[in-house]
Amino acid sequence: MSSQTRSVLVTGVGHSWGKKLVRLLEKDKEFNPIIGVDFKKPEERFDRMEFFQVDLHNPLLAELLRAAKVQAVCHLLFLEAYAGNEEYFDQNVMGTMDLMAASVAAQVPRVILKSDTKVYGAGYANPMYLKEETELKGRHQHRYIQDRLDIERVMERHIRQHEIPKVTILRFANIIGNTVATHVTRYLDSEVIPCVFGHDPLFQFTHETDVVRALYHAMKNDASGVFNVSGDGVLPLSQVIRIGGRIPLPLTGGILRLASAVLRPGNRKGFTNSIPIQADYLMYNCLSDTSRMKNVLGFTPRYSSRQAVEDFYQHMRLKRYLPGDKAIRSDPKSSERLARYIEALQAGHGPEEACAPDKGGEHGN
Amino acid sequence: METKSAAGKDARVPVVKLQNGGEYRYGEGVPRGVRELLQKLARRMRGEYQVDAWGGDSELMAQAWPVFRFLYKKYWRVTTTGIENVPATGRALLVANHSGVLPYDGAMVVMAVVEEHPQPRLVRALYLSLFASLPVTGMALAKMGQVQALPENAERLLENDELALVFPEGAKGVGKPFRKRYQLARFGRGGFVRVALRTKSPIIPVSIVGAEEIHPMLMNVKPLAALAGLPYWPVTPTFPWLGPLGLIPLPTKWHIHFGAPIPIHEMEYRPAEEPLLVSKISSQVRETIQKNIHERLKVRRSVFW
């Protein structure tokens, strides 16, 4: 298979994960053509990706998959909502249903989904390390987890009913990194970090580069099934806060639950923004067993949980001393692209490789 | 154990050459103990420490050691026999009788292996899920390297060639009334045998004498227990009459015996035979522990020495 090229489709390329993955896929000649879909246009230009600004409900999707003989679909379109938001639900869950329906109709061999280990739910009765076949007990209180769960259920139904496509689900433990904004990075980046008195749950972390590498690895290899993906090692929450030099704010579980339920963290500022993960996850462990990732998927993360945390906080510290997003400065990425452009011109390529001025980096998806 | 290695880092202390030809090491004049403590605290505050896969924090364990050592050596004066039955390497499932209202017996078995074994190892006692749900308790147990009692956890421990300690009597054992002392309660559903069979681990029966009398439970106030969400609400000669003082256990004399291993790992059987085997081995282990307890009780002259 590796000698031929395969045609792939990535959803959510207007958002950060899709962009990062396509950047990596473009470097690999095996993936050709690369089709990207999203309802939002990516701000940057891509070298080889064919972009279509459509959402997943588009009835032409099945035709596209069939006509382009897509070998693998990587489903990354997911909108993180905190409060109940019907539009987000429509994109996340209904969109996944439509994408799966199209994939079944077009007999796409493989679908790869990015998910989250939080779907297992945190609870005191959890075994220390949860295996992939564990029942998903994430509680429905939080929109993010509910949407993830609903998507997993859609996938489960498809796996049960259809032989094709083969589904690969990567469940990532707490993703952190300096160029992504997740509920975990928002939580850990606040100066005062609310936690629960008398509880010190263990956390696993996945570095953002490992997320993209794992997705790429899954696209490249044929292992199907569900895999937990996380960096090695565990850290207690208290240690994470200490590494970051932040201030822990111990509350009782009841107060924290109340706060996260009543003050739905819909707004972007203030205290409520600090507790975007449910109180359960700050009280009890939700750790995943990554032996399948190592043995079956054959993937090795580059960052351990601890290294991911250290890297994250180093960047967060540095960020305070850098000019803000609005400051006038030249983007190092633009210079890189300029250099590539000049190189292309010198190599005798036509000016159609020219690109419009870049509109900022990958911040603020 | 970790404190000693922290002391070795004194080479990092900057030395200042003084004008009169002498030199001054930073922190000189500050008592060594204070200096080391401050250094250690600073390091902890920076988050520079490691926890193991179960959340066990070896530095905190080292801090707690003196307390448990005192309980083991001075307070309960534990005599340990049969320590040679605990393997120096590889997996084994220790199975013990449970008693004493508050589960000190687990801590003492852990101490016995650390104090008496020629190659000290950390025994992972598996504690009731109830404790995991309680604030502080669950956190403290995890930091001490103890593990919640679930078959998955026990299997994982044994697969990683660790020593796991289980109390198959569970809450029924630890909360048994004083008049039933040294009569083993029912042994759960034999889950521990299934784990041992699956992971091919030898079972080492451990009998503990002396723990039954530390909190003689005269009565179990079940309505109060239900109200508090606890498996039992004890009334002892001192609790709740003396308030928090009633939580001080009596200084009985303890004896811990590690019995000969039951070679589960050498057993050959068909899958269909497993349920029968589980119940057979379960009662065999129970009888062995009961017999060893009786042997000890025969020669015990006093509860306190």
Topology at a glance:
The complex is a heterodimer of chains A (365) and B (305).
Chain A: E1 6-11, H1 16-26, E2 31-37, E3 49-52, H2 60-67, E4 70-75, H3 86-105, E5 110-116, E6 129-130, H4 143-161, E7 166-172, E8 175-176, H5 183-188, E9 192-196, E10 202-203, E11 206-207, H6 208-220, E12 225-229, E13 235-236, H7 237-244, E14 247-251, H8 253-262, H9 279-283, E15 287-288, H10 291-297, H11 305-319, H12 332-346
Chain B: H1 2-7, E1 15-17, E2 23-25, H2 32-45, H3 58-75, E3 79-81, E4 92-96, H4 104-116, E5 123-127, H5 129-133, H6 137-143, E6 147-148, H7 151-159, E7 163-166, H8 171-174, H9 191-199, E8 203-209, E9 219-220, H10 222-228, E10 234-235, E11 255-258, H11 274-299
Helix pairs in contact in B: 3-4, 7-9, 9-11
CATH architecture of the largest domain in chain B: 3-Layer(aba) Sandwich
Strand order of the largest sheet of chain A: 3-2-1-4-5-7-12
Tally of separate domains of chain A: 1
Helix fraction bin of chain A:
25-40%
Kindly state the number of beta strands of chain A. Answer: 15
CATH architecture name of chain A:
3-Layer(aba) Sandwich
- The overall average pLDDT of chain A, rounded, is 84
Measure the end-to-end span of chain A.
35 Å
- Which residues of chain A form runs of ≥5 with pLDDT under 50? 265-274, 353-365
Q: How would you classify the helix and strand content of chain A by structural class?
A: alpha/beta
Strand content of chain B: 5-15%
- CATH homologous superfamily caption of chain A: NAD(P)-binding Rossmann-like Domain
Give the overall shape of chain B, derived from the CA principal axes. Answer: globular
Q: Strands of the largest sheet of chain B, in order across it? A: 3-11-8-4-7-5-6
Largest sheet of chain A: 7 strands, parallel
The overall average pLDDT of chain B, rounded, is 88
Report on the architecture of this protein.
The complex is a heterodimer of chains A (365) and B (305). Chain A has twelve helices and 15 strands. Chain A is α/β, with parallel strands linked by helices. Chain A has a single domain (6-339), classed as Rossmann fold. Chain A has a seven-stranded parallel beta sheet with strand order 3-2-1-4-5-7-12, sandwiched between helices. In chain A, helix 1 (16-26) packs across helix 6 and helix 2 crosses helix 3 (86-105). The radius of gyration of chain A is 21 Å and the shape is globular. In chain A, 44% of the residues are buried. In chain B, helix 7 packs parallel to helix 9 (191-199). In chain B, strand 1 and strand 2 (23-25) form a beta hairpin. Chain B is globular, with a radius of gyration of 23 Å. Chain B has eleven helices and eleven strands. Chain B folds into two domains: 1-6 and 22-49; 58-214 and 249-299, Glycerol-3-phosphate (1)-acyltransferase (3-Layer(aba) Sandwich), CATH 3.40.1130.10. The longest helix of chain B has 26 residues, at 274-299. Chain A binds chain B through residues 124-125, 127-129, 131, 196-200, 202, 233-236, 239-244, 253, 284-285, and chain B through 44-47, 49, 51, 53-55, 57, 129, 132-136, 138-139, 142-143, 147-148, 150, 152-153, 156.
